[in-house]
Amino acid sequence: MSETPHLLIVESRYYEDVAAELLKGTTAELEAVGATSERIEVPGAFEIPAAIRMAIRSMDFYAGRRRFDGYIALGCVIRGETTHYDYICTESARKLQDLAVNYTLALGYGILTCETHDQAMERAAVNRKNKGGDAARACLAMIGVKQRFRLFPR
Length: 154
Prior knowledge:
It is globular and about 45 Å long. It has one domain (about 5-150): Lumazine/riboflavin synthase (Rossmann fold, 3-Layer(aba) Sandwich), CATH 3.40.50. About 50% of the residues lie in helices and about 20% in strands. The longest helix is centred in the middle third of the chain and has 19 residues, at about 85-100. By secondary structure, the protein is an alpha/beta fold. The chain has 5 helices and 4 strands.
């Protein structure tokens, strides 16, 4: 790995205001350590694991492209009137954990699962709980773990 980590931020913009705060917190943390990043948007939290898998798979076809040292998943799921919330939360979290374990990924999990929009903003806002910043710090910490075990291609 190069000295400067390069990360992929996969972001669901389903709740624009929440997503904007999560992204602000994430980018501030990455800028503070000099990390670089690319960002892609997906329709919702359910699509985040597939987008990360596509990014991993793309390395098989485009070997000259800079690899990602880590991945940050950002999104928000707010409970509605049906069980849809439960499926989205469970399946997106499970698939992200599967990707992290199966592909030895440094992954920052920043998908909020909230009962209300107010709860989501409390967790997302950079001047409150700043969960986007937390996801970035978690990813950077896991990059450190990968470095310790020398799991980066030379």
